[in-house]
């Protein structure tokens, strides 16, 4: 991977770009007013552009760029503030001071909602296997600034770990989080800012019996799974689905409080 700056404010951004290159074990190159096409043609590697309050990752094959955007989380937040309801908060039962492990972080939309629910005294841990996604999302959570203070504070508090979720879960202590959550990458296309670019890097893996076993060992309340309404995963692992009318994707809950 090559890391460089946006054309505007290239000098001011150079120190940050060099730092990001070190963090990614990538190579920094000066922009020198060169186009993206010229840089990718010259270096034949993916290209990370560092701009003010934003990073954009361009795959070598010139697919859609990957960048951070809170997507539906911001809309859900506004609805939650108005109505006091959100389907994820309701199925998880998350309250102030609790801990949620999001084992499939992605763009962190549900992690943001979880952090809003658990508040400043609670903890949300997001696990992301792909290095590029973890990096872009973590930076985005700390630099996005187009929302109110409550939403931004929730974004900043999320703990992002670049790690295979199963490896992390196997090393997590028994009964150390109220909720463990899985939202595996859907094959169904979703039109949303940044998601098209993320698909180029996303790790596609099925939720296995081993994932569920480890999550059930860790959770004190429930394991929650989000999947397409036609998915066989809910029945396969014993999840109870609270059907939402006209929703393509549903939340299922596996209560472990009695286990």
Automatic annotation (TrEMBL):
Stored InterPro entries: 16SrRNA_methylTrfase_J, SAM-dependent_MTases_sf
A Pfam family that the UniProt record links to this protein: SAM_MT
Name of the protein: SAM-dependent methyltransferase
Organism of this sequence: Shouchella xiaoxiensis
